[in-house]
Amino acid sequence: xxxxxxxxxxxxxxxxxxxxxxxxxxxxxxxxxxxxxxxxxxxxxxxxxxxxxxx
Length: 55
Ligand SMILES: [Zn+2]
What we know:
The protein is α+β, with helices and mostly antiparallel strands. The protein has one helix at about 40-50, and strands spanning about 10-15, 20-25, 30, 40. The strands form two sheets. The protein has a two-stranded antiparallel ribbon with strand order 1-2. A two-stranded antiparallel ribbon has the order 3-4.
């Protein structure tokens, strides 16, 4: 068993209900808010944080 330590967790804030959570998954575009199930655009957040390059 390989345990991979992922230090790329980012804070995500839902634009609808303002819920904030740590996300460390692999999704590049959208994640679902655990509280209200709204789709949150994670790509925009990553570009803002400088984790990925915007077009
Ligand atoms: Zn929400």
